[in-house]
Amino acid sequence: MQFPALRPRRLRENETIRRMVRETRLSVDDLIYPMFVIYGEGVRNPVPSMPGVFQLSVDQVVLEAEEVVKLGIPAVILFGIPEKKDEIGSGAYDDNGEVQQAIKALKDRFPELVVITDVCLCEYTSHGHCGLVDKGRILNDPTLELLARMAVSHARAGADMVAPSDMMDGRVAAIREKLDALGFKHVPIMAYSAKYASAFYGPFRDAAHSTPQFGDRRSYQMDPANSNEAIREVKLDIAEGADIVMVKPALSYLDIIRRVKEETGYPVAAYNVSGEYAMVKAAAAQGWIDEKKVVLELLTSMKRAGADMILTYHAKDVAKWLVEG
């Protein structure tokens, strides 16, 4: 049947009909809000490359979370910025570290808020790499024990979920084994399974003080040219015990999100990363785009591709916009 009998515009005639046939819906329940926890008290340092994002001391994290909870955002993910760094990232698994203190404070004040923690050494090492280093080489297996210690430290503090982002081989299995052995079988793992060596991470490294002091991360993060490798990585993490798998970044990797969802059927998280956020903010500040419309379109595309949840610095704004309709 052809035109004029077939007229797709009939179902676009007004907003009510468009809403009735809408295939993809973005909800506040899809959102996870990232926060940067720094040492000190009363600290709220703006991140220059990420307008609206701050490094927050523990007391300020709690204040920020109050707004997050009021907006109905179900979860946050915490990244730590220690006062001192060393070659083995000892602050990462310090039970009195900034993130551990923030977890306790958040769970005490907002028990219903899901607190997820980033598990990686890069914010804590003096060299800025995600693993131990020997003569310029990133060591895989010795790093696993430290990542497992970090995950256990977070779980002991009360974290609801841990999220290893280091891309070391075998880290999901190492973390799962250690969590289970120490009585944390109930703590799920959200694995950064397909994490690419992307140019979109620059503002995050500004916020987390985690720029590598030598070389780059291409020996452990994935080549942006590869798709099949992502599926292999995801399936390995699932086999090792991951409960949720993540694709990072999101915007340039919508095809990967779609493949992961279709080929595994697992819950998929997409990280709308700092560079994606900063580009939108910069263009909006110049008046070149409508920030609200662009952000909602971008996040809807991630949902449409297959993401079940989205980590995004836009989360608070999006939650407000969704309430406004």
Automatic annotation (TrEMBL):
Pathway stated in the Swiss-Prot or TrEMBL entry: Porphyrin-containing compound metabolism; protoporphyrin-IX biosynthesis; coproporphyrinogen-III from 5-aminolevulinate: step 1/4
Record: residues binding Zn(2+): C120, C122, C130
Residues given in the record as 5-aminolevulinate 2 binding sites: S274, Y313
Function: Catalyzes an early step in the biosynthesis of tetrapyrroles. Binds two molecules of 5-aminolevulinate per subunit, each at a distinct site, and catalyzes their condensation to form porphobilinogen.
Record-linked InterPro entries: ALAD, ALAD_AS, Aldolase_TIM
The family this protein is said to belong to: Belongs to the ALAD family.
Summary of subunit composition and partner proteins: Homooctamer.
Active site per the UniProt annotation: K195, K248
Protein name: Delta-aminolevulinic acid dehydratase
Primary enzyme class: lyase
Catalytic activity: 2 5-aminolevulinate = porphobilinogen + 2 H2O + H(+)
GO terms for MF: porphobilinogen synthase activity; zinc ion binding
A cellular-component GO term for this protein: cytosol
Keywords, in A-Z order: Heme biosynthesis, Lyase, Magnesium, Metal-binding, Porphyrin biosynthesis, Zinc
Residues at which 5-aminolevulinate 1 binds: R205, R217
Highest taxon in the source lineage: Bacteria
Record keyword Magnesium present: yes
Residues annotated as binding Mg(2+): E233
Cofactor: Zn(2+)
Pfam families listed in its UniProt record: ALAD
The keyword NAD appears for this protein: no
Enzyme Commission code(s) on record: 4.2.1.24
Gene Ontology BP annotations: protoporphyrinogen IX biosynthetic process
